[in-house]
Design a protein that fits this description.
alpha/beta
Length: 137
């Protein structure tokens, strides 16, 4: 089931906070997510990501881990400290594809890990699973 099918079946339009500092990458990922039926909120650095998460209360967060002002690991930890945001799935997204980076992402509070360049079929599957799990809880 694609993410748009999952969203259509639940009657909800999921809101994704897309955190990425490279504008061109952000534009491509936004276009793909919107084509899947998601509403996309954007942040270009870690500080803005925390502020947007608190303000917008997204259904999931796609977090670049290498960010200016505040890296994705620390931003995720700050987001996880907020009781209202603890259940929001966070997907780490990084070009650093070594096991220690995956472990560091999970330790920071991420629920899943995808690598760049992004495999959009994999991202769709990961988001669909995380959102279904959240909806069921």
């Amino acid at each position: 089931m694609s993410t748009s099918e999952a969203g259509a079946k639940s009657g909800a339009r999921y809101r994704i906070l897309l955190v990425e500092d490279v504008a061109d990458v952000r534009a491509v990922v936004r276009a793909v997510l919107e084509s899947e039926g998601y509403e996309v909120i954007e942040a270009g650095d870690g500080v803005s990501a925390v502020e947007a998460a608190l303000r917008e209360r997204p259904d999931a967060i796609l977090m670049d881990m290498s960010l200016p002002r505040l890296d994705g690991y620390r931003a995720t930890k700050l987001i996880r400290q907020e009781p209202e945001l603890r259940g929001v799935p966070v997907v780490a997204c990084t070009a650093l594809n070594r096991w220690e980076w995956r472990g560091k992402s999970i330790a920071a509070g991420c629920d899943a890990f995808v690598t760049k360049p992004i495999d959009f079929a994999q991202l769709s599957s990961v988001l669909s699973q995380l959102l279904a799990r959240r909806r069921a809880s």
